[in-house]
Here is the input.
Amino acid sequence: MAKTSIWITGAEGRLGSALLRLLKQDVDNKVVGTDRDVDITRMEDVEQSATIYRPNVIINCASISDAAYCEAHMVEAFKVNALGARNLAAAARRVNAKIIQLSTDDIFEGKMAGALTEFDLPAPRSAYGKSKLAAENYVKELSPKHIIVRSSWVYGAATGETNQDYFTFVDSHGRSNTPFEAPVDVISTPTSAYELAKFIQCLLDKTEYGIYHASCEGMCTRHEFARAILSLMGYDVSLAKAVFVERGGNRICTLLENLMMKMTEIYTMPAWMDALQEYVEMVKSQSTE
Here is the structure.
């Protein structure tokens, strides 16, 4: 049986590193992970890599995801997030590969009261969200064999990663017993990078295409998420100080409904608290080794 050739970009990030570890466990996969060694913003570099790797599947995890950094460096954010996706989608079409593009709940404005499905219209407020929506549009336009996977509040930091995720941010404050502010009016779903990687693994041999929401089930505020992390790690939950970030009693809600996943019945994401408990157990076991 021929091996499935998989090219993962952004392989040193949270999701990329989780995918690399997971997919390499299958002997039928031939997995290549790249990060800064392949500049996805340069079409010639992407074309050359696609020619060398000849992937059946390209998984684009490369992204600048720090929202504040994207606002301050808009050109760089669009260059990496949107132009990079454009180049990879064009290369995928040339080598007849499926492309799985990772996206985010930040493409939505956050003003709707209920859960957002794949059929709701995006309206990003931030430069980060706008750049990721531009990436989605490029992938849809340039590569017929595409899957866009939107998720929310992804955590599970890679070893040696310089940019903190929310889990490591809260954990560091818990360890140092330092209070921090956590919004009570920002709502979505924490999603473990390891659980998201399992869903993406399931997509590899499926003939599904289009947009999929893939967040863990349930919902919480940032404040509730922070308190859950502190509690499970054995820290003082009162370190998370409740604050409001929106005026006039409004809230930001980017809760994703995994509607396509449920309609096609190809996968079921776990409850966010179950996934968090499993991740905390893994973190604790690694710290004692």
